[in-house]
């Protein structure tokens, strides 16, 4: 059994704002509404952008805006004092927004990853994790392995998912997008809404309030674009077993639940296979949108910040789907010491972590 | 820190791949793999050959699969961006431009369902060392795949082992192709090979 790693610092830019405290303040004000992203006059979709206020000039180029956001969240999480640590960049779309804006294709994808490291004057090894929606969680598990090996004391996981038309167009072509808002677990759910996030998790081996105990990741070859309830149950059981935690000890489950008709149902069915009675549930997809490769880091940051402050997302007029027998809780559960954190995604990716809150002991 | 040793049970170095690699793969599988992009297909070609060299029909479910690529499915990405000039990219083009789509293809054709990820470093040894740190008793299958000319599909199948009194020598990634070396270890972040 692993000792786990601890969350030393957090930095977040997402549709709620730039900075964790700003995000919490805006979360308290009520449900977020998506804006529209226009690829062409005929093609536009709902979208949760990072608000353009304090982080860059309104007219900044895609790269200038990306650099400003990356620097801001890394400074906020405090990792810029250990620049020799490994840096894991987790992303689905990486620099596609920049390419759309006219930037030249770099010599290879790793060149852009190294450019991001250079923005931070980073000196440690740089890893690029591109496992779609599970990228951030895979990055956290790899960071944990490096820290537990004794080779490094710290690691930075940086989820980056920034504005581009290509992802929205691709998801639209696959008929995965909701026309207005995401409705996770809702009877009328009809797709997901994409969003932007830049999220920095600074991990280390010395005790802090939040511990990432361990986790599991499984690839399902039978469905390259969706979740499978059997694999959901397998990956959860594997993660619980790795941590020596029984299902009854889980006090909260952070769902993937993005509002997809089929995937939400598969995820909940998988949970029913593990839990005789479902623990309290929460999803952030109706709050942040689906931030793809950054979603694991962004949602873990927001979840831990919410639990620290008692702030909780307000559901948008949800009508629970009776077929699921599952609803998100309207308020934070009391002292959920052990939390299951799910991310599912493209590529048959099923991943979950077990998170512990030392403040609940 | 004591060194953990790994036996190189399978290896396949195609850099560049043979001109008829697609035909070879189709022959080996008994069919041309359907609905996957060329980059994923090239990954599958090398992974399948590597497992064959290890004498394994399937990759054990608890083995780690790590796929690295400096370019990723770059050709499909360029095609998808090109198609956006006329509207939305074709779903198959969009999917093929996603690195993660190689993983279910590998899962399907290697008879495997386990911990797989796309993780890249400029120095291939770093990705290999990290995979060794994360792998369990069934070891790992690690690949480095790029379709851009000249292209490559390089794979290693490793299983944990007791190195006994093996003498290791400091090595580079390129030396992993040498079949005289059958054991691998890391001393700190330095690759060591032994026979």
- Quickly count the helices of chain A: 10
Shape by Cα distribution of chain B: elongated
Portion of residues in helices of chain B?
A: 25-40%
Q: Report the portion of residues of chain B in β strands.
A: 25-35%
- How big a fraction of the residues of chain A is strand? 15-25%
Give the quaternary arrangement of the chains: heterodimer
Structural class of chain B: alpha+beta
The radius of gyration computed from the alpha-carbon positions of chain B, rounded to a whole number of angstroms, is: 17 Å
Q: What's the N-to-C terminus distance of chain A?
A: 20 Å
Tell me the major beta sheet of chain B: 8 strands, mixed
Strand order of the biggest β-sheet of chain B? 3-2-4-5-1-7-8-6
Care to count the β-strands of chain A?
A: 14
Tally of DSSP β-strands of chain B: 8
The unreliable regions of chain A are none
Q: What pair of chains forms the biggest interface?
A: A-B, 55 and 52 residues
CA distance, first residue to last residue of chain B: 22 Å
Describe the sheet with the most strands of chain A: 11 strands, mixed
The SSE order of chain A reads EEHEEHEHHEHEHEEEHEHEHHEE
Overall mean confidence score, pLDDT of chain B? 95
Unreliable residue stretches of chain B: none
Rounded to an integer, what's the Rg of chain A over CA atoms? Answer: 19 Å
């Amino acid at each position: 059994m692993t000792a786990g790693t601890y969350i030393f610092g957090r930095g977040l830019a997402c549709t709620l704002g730039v900075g964790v405290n700003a995000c919490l303040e805006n979360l308290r004000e009520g449900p977020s509404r998506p804006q529209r992203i226009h690829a062409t006059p005929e093609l536009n979709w709902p979208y949760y952008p990072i608000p353009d206020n304090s982080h860059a000039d309104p007219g900044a180029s895609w790269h200038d805006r990306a650099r400003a956001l990356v620097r801001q969240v890394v400074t906020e999480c405090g990792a810029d004092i250990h620049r020799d640590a490994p840096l894991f960049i987790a992303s689905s779309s990486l620099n596609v927004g920049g390419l759309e804006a006219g930037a030249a294709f770099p010599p290879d994808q790793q060149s852009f990853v190294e450019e991001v490291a250079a923005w931070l004057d980073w000196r440690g090894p740089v890893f690029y994790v591109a496992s779609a929606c599970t990228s951030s969680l895979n990055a956290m598990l790899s960071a944990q392995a490096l820290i537990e090996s004794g080779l490094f004391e710290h690691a930075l996981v940086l989820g980056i998912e920034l504005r581009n038309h290509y992802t929205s167009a691709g998801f639209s072509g696959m008929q995965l997008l909701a026309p207005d808002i995401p409705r996770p677990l809702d009877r009328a759910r009809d797709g997901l809404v994409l969003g932007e996030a830049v999220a920095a998790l600074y991990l280390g081996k010395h005790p802090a309030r939040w511990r990432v105990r361990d986790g599991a990741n499984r690839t399902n070859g039978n469905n390259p674009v969706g979740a499978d309830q059997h694999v959901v149950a397998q990956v959860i059981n594997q993660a619980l077993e790795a941590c020596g935690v029984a299902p009854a000890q889980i006090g909260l489950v952070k769902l993937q639940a993005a509002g997809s008709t089929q995937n939400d149902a598969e995820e909940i069915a998988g949970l029913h296979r593990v839990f005789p009675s479902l623990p309290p549930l929460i999803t952030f997809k109706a709050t942040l949108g689906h931030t793809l490769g950054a979603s694991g880091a962004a949602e873990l940051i927001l979840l831990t910040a919410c639990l620290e402050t008692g702030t909780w997302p307000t559901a948008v007029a949800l009508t629970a789907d009776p077929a699921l027998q599952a609803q998100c809780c309207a308020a934070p559960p009391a002292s959920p010491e052990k939390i299951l954190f799910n991310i599912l995604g493209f590529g048959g990716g099923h991943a979950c972590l077990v998170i512990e809150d030392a403040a609940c002991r | 820190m004591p060194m953990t040793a790994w036996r190189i049970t399978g290896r396949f170095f195609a850099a560049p791949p043979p001109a008829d690699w697609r035909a070879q793969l189709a022959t080996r599988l008994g069919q041309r793999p359907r609905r996957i992009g060329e980059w994923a297909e090239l990954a599958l070609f090398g992974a399948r050959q590597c497992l064959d060299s290890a004498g394994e029909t399937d990759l054990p479910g608890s083995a780690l699969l790590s796929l690295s690529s400096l370019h990723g499915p770059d050709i499909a990405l360029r095609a998808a961006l090109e198609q956006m000039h006329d509207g939305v990219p074709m779903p198959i083009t969009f999917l093929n431009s996603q690195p993660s789509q190689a993983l279910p293809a590998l899962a399907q054709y290697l008879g495997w369902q386990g911990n797989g990820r796309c993780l890249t470093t400029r120095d291939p040894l770093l990705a290999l060392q990290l995979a060794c740190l994360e792998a369990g008793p069934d070891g790992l299958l690690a690949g480095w795949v790029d379709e851009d000319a000249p292209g490559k599909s390089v794979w290693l199948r490793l299983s944990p082992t007791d190195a006994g009194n093996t003498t290791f020598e400091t090595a580079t990634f390129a030396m992993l192709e040498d079949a005289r070396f059958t054991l691998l270890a890391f001393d700190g972040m330095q690759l060591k090979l032994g026979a």
